[in-house]
Amino acid sequence: MRLLLLLAASLVGLACAKPVKDDGPEKILDLRLEALEGSLLRGTLVNKGKKDIRLFTRSTILDPNPVRKVSILSPKDQPRFIGVRARVSHDNVSDESLILIKRNKPFNFIFDVAHTYDLSKGGAFDIIAEGIIPYAEKKSNDLTGQAAYRSNRLTVHVNGTTAHLAKRALEERATVERDCVGDRALIADTARQACAMVAIAAAQSALTGDANQFVRYFRTADPGIRGTVAARFFAVANECAGNSQHARIFCSDPARLCQSDYISVTLGNSITNCDLYWQFPTVSNTCHGVGQATTTIHEITHVDGVFNPPTDDYQGHYGWPALADLSPEQAIMNADNYGFYANSIYINVGC
Ligand SMILES: *[C@@H]1O[C@H](CO)[C@@H](O)[C@H](O)[C@H]1NC(C)=O
Ligand SMILES: *[C@@H]1O[C@H](CO)[C@@H](O)[C@H](O)[C@H]1NC(C)=O
C-alpha cells in the first residue's frame, strides 16, 4: 500500500512519501483453479472480505495479456517464461483497469498457461497461483488496498504440439516492424541516450560509489553483488547506446499489447512503450519518480541476452519502498531495483 501511495505521490511531483499505515496484504480472496482442457484453466475468485471491491487487473492474474499468472512447481526443470511483462501505473487508474468483485459472488475467468510458459515438451505440470492484487473501494479509482490470494495446487496435462503452436503465435506477435516516427522517434532517441548515460553512472556508483546508497536498494555491500549489479548496468548502457542489439523498442503498439494504465510492456526481446510512457519526463527529478530512461532501463534488464539471467518483476515488490524489502539475491533479479537505484544516482541527493 505504501508503494502505491508513493508512486502516486511521485507522479504528481512530490519528493517524499507520506507516512502511511502498512498492514500488509489482506487475505480476503479465495482462488480456485481447475483445468478445462490441456493448459487452458478456469479461475474462480471469491471475495471473502466485508465489502465489495474493485480489483486492479493490470499485471495481475486478471490481466487479459499473458503476464505471469501461475507458478510451475518443478524446481529441477522450470519451463521458460515466454509471456508479457508489463510496467503499470497505479496512479489515477482508469475504470477499464478495474473489475468489481462483489462480496461472496464468484467471479470466473479463463487463461492459458501455455501463453506464459514454454510447455512444448508436453506432459504433466503442477501449478499454483499466488499473489497480491491492488484494489479500490467500490466507488473509487484510488488503489488503497491489497488483496492476497493463494490457489489450490493443480496438475495440468499438456499436449506439447498445441503448446508449441501457442508459443509460436506469441513469437509472431513480438516480431512486427519498427514503428518510431515523428515526435516519438525523437523522444525515443533522447530517452535511449539518457538510458545509456544514467546506466553508466549507476554502474560506476554500484562499483565504487556510496555503499550506504547501494545498501538501501540491494540490502548488502558485498563486493560480488555490487559487481553483478554494475555488470548488468554496463550491459544495459551498451544496449541503450546501440553497441549491442538484443532489444527492439516500439513507439506505437503494433502487437496490441498495451492496456489502460500500462507504462510499457515487454514480450520476448520487444519493448513497447505505451501511451502513458510518453507523458513522463526523460529522467525524473524526484526521488523514486518515474521517467522514460529509467523505465527503459527497467525493461531492458528483462530482455534475454543483455545480461543473463534476465530480471523478473517480483509481485508485491514493485516500486519504492516495497522493492527494498527483497533479499540481496532477489533484489539483483528484480527489474525495479535497477530502475529506482539508477534514478537515485541520477538525482544525487541520497534518496
Ligand atoms: C485522471 O485521468 C483522467 C482520464 O483518465 C484525466 O482526465 C485526469 O486529468 C487525470 N487526473 C490526474 C490528477 O492525473
Ligand atoms: C496433440 O495434438 C495434436 C494436434 O492437435 C494431435 O495430433 C496429437 O495426437 C496430440 N498428442 C497427444 C499426445 O494427445
UniProtKB/TrEMBL annotation:
One GO CC term, this protein: extracellular region
Database matches in InterPro entries: Fungal_M35_metalloproteases, MetalloPept_cat_dom_sf, Peptidase_M35
Signal peptide: 1-17
Catalytic function, reaction form: Preferential cleavage of bonds with hydrophobic residues in P1'. Also 3-Asn-|-Gln-4 and 8-Gly-|-Ser-9 bonds in insulin B chain
Pfam families, sorted: Peptidase_M35 (PF02102)
Keywords attached to this entry: Cleavage on pair of basic residues, Hydrolase, Metal-binding, Metalloprotease, Protease, Secreted, Signal, Zinc, Zymogen
UniProt-recorded Gene Ontology molecular function terms: metal ion binding; metalloendopeptidase activity
Alphabetized PROSITE patterns for the sequence: PROKAR_LIPOPROTEIN
GO BP annotation list: proteolysis
Active site, renumbered: 299
Function statement: Secreted metalloproteinase that allows assimilation of proteinaceous substrates. Shows high activities on basic nuclear substrates such as histone and protamine.
UniProt family annotation: Belongs to the peptidase M35 family.
PANTHER family: NEUTRAL PROTEASE 2-RELATED, PTHR37016
Name of the protein: Neutral protease 2
The species this protein was found in: Trichodelitschia bisporula
